[in-house]
């Protein structure tokens, strides 16, 4: 019996777990030592120092003769961990970049080992059924009164928004329609709305001002009236898609969803809501009312790798019924031949514009089953409470200015009287020293430091220390 060369054992089959087990200690030890060497939310020294460390430890990456699996794992995993931005550190608070739950990460290991490909049933028998059940369960949170809600699994908000706009284009296309779909969005909308219009060959979106961070219904009414010609203004024959945001990237603001849904109905416009950030509030009994009106959208974007604590990627596009997804139907004989589908083999190709897809549903399903809605709701409540605590600390501090009370988990603040140049320098100093990772947001009142809290275990002391770090870099 021949013995496979070191590092060539497979992860699947009955022998796969044994092969994996021999590597787990090496990986976990390297993660531990890498985090210890980093000793903070970000490696110090900036891009040049990190690049130099990676080159010094990892090159050559394609040697003539390999180092063996344990040495390769130890070296590269340690290097990656030592040079990582660690979202589990409470001072890593710049982006919608969450610390994943350990249970979800463990499930992702199983997904990688089994490697189902979600483009045909015969590559993913159980995974395809698990995706069907889980996506419908999540869609029912968005559309509780719908008879048969559904959701597509995506790589995140960008893909979900693109799909939502594509479905709107197809749903509104008819022989009587002479103009292209016109998107209307706020200046607060995610950049993927504009990129989707470009990608789909649609006109540049009409972008309405959001000086207070959210869409103003009166401004939206005037715009839709002019586009649709229902109450005067410039008449046009093309369809209109109104997009709203439930959790903006800059401040976490939520557009007035019920009023916007009324306007979309009144003017005969399609309605899409990007709830990538705020959507998981549906898990919380305390905060779900902030999403009133969500179920009136034709399509809704959700991300569980933000306020859902999943490893990237874990996005969804929810719809009230499967008929909405009909335009995505596609046939490739080697994947979903008509006679196979008629014989009862599920057709997965119309579930995505991608062909090969990872079984990202596994980690989501494990998390839902492990914690339940109440458990996830508790994590939501704790994280939003931490943001309110940070806002209270800023409000009470004589040398800080708070932009506004947080809607979700994003807090905008700045040292009093600091100009934009000073703020940018403070942020970059904290990054280069590896002490804190804060974002930046530009509003009509200038530049602000942005703290996006996604760690549900953050304590008030962590937040106090974060403010002291900023204060220590603020010129007096």
Automatic annotation (TrEMBL):
Keyword Metal-binding among record annotations: no
Cofactor(s) required for function per UniProt: pyridoxal 5'-phosphate
Pfam families in alphabetical order: Pyridoxal_deC
Keyword Lyase: yes
Keywords: Decarboxylase, Lyase, Pyridoxal phosphate
InterPro entries found in the cross-reference section: PyrdxlP-dep_de-COase, PyrdxlP-dep_Trfase, PyrdxlP-dep_Trfase_major, PyrdxlP-dep_Trfase_small
Family designation: Belongs to the group II decarboxylase family.
Protein name: Amino acid decarboxylase
């Amino acid at each position: 019996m021949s013995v496979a060369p070191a590092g060539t054992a497979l992860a699947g089959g009955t022998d796969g777990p044994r092969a994996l087990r021999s590597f787990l200690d090496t990986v976990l030890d390297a993660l531990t030592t890498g985090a210890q060497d980093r000793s903070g939310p970000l490696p110090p020294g900036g891009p040049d120092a990190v690049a130099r460390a990676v080159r010094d430890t990892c090159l050559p990456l394609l040697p003539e003769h390999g180092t063996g699996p344990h040495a390769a794992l130890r070296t590269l995993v340690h290097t990656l961990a030592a040079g990582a931005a660690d979202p589990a550190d409470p001072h890593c608070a710049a982006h919608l970049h969450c610390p994943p739950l350990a249970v979800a990460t463990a499930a992702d290991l199983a997904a990688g080992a089994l490697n189902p490909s979600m483009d045909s049933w015969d590559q993913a028998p159980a995974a395809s059924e698990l995706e069907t059940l889980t996506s419908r369960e999540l869609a029912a949170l968005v559309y509780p009164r719908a008879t048969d809600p559904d959701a597509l699994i995506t790589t995140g908000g960008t893909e979900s928004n693109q799909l939502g706009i594509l479905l709107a284009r197809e749903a509104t296309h008819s022989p009587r329609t002479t103009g292209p779909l016109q998107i209307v969005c706020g200046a607060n909308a995610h950049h993927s709305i504009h990129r989707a219009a470009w990608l789909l060959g649609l006109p540049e979106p009409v972008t309405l001002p959001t000086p207070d961070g959210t869409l103003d219904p009166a401004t939206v009414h005037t715009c839709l009236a002019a586009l649709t010609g229902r109450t005067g203004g410039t008449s046009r024959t093309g369809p209109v898609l109104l997009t709203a945001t439930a959790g903006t990237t800059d401040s976490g603001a939520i557009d007035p969803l019920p009023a916007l849904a009324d306007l979309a109905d009144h003017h005969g416009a399609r309605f899409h809501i990007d709830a990538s950030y705020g959507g998981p509030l549906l898990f919380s009994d305390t905060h779900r009312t902030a999403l009133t009106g969500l179920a009136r959208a034709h399509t809704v974007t959700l991300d569980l790798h933000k306020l859902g604590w999943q490893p990237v990627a874990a996005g969804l596009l929810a719809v009230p019924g499967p008929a909405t997804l009909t335009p995505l139907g596609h046939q490739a004989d080697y994947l979903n031949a008509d006679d196979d589908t008629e014989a009862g083999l599920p057709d997965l190709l119309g579930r995505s514009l991608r062909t090969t897809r990872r079984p990202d549903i596994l980690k989501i399903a494990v998390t839902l089953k492990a914690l339940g809605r109440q458990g996830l709701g508790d994590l939501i409540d704790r994280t939003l409470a931490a943001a309110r605590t940070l806002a209270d600390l800023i409000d009470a501090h004589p040398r800080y200015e708070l932009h506004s009370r947080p809607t979700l988990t994003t807090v905008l603040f700045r040292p009093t009287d600091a100009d934009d140049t000073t703020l940018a320098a403070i942020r970059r100093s904290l990054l280069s020293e590896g002490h804190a990772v804060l974002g930046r947001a530009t509003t009509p009142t200038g530049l602000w430091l942005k703290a996006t809290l996604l760690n549900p275990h953050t304590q008030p002391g962590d937040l106090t220390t974060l403010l002291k770090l900023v204060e220590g870099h603020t010129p007096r």
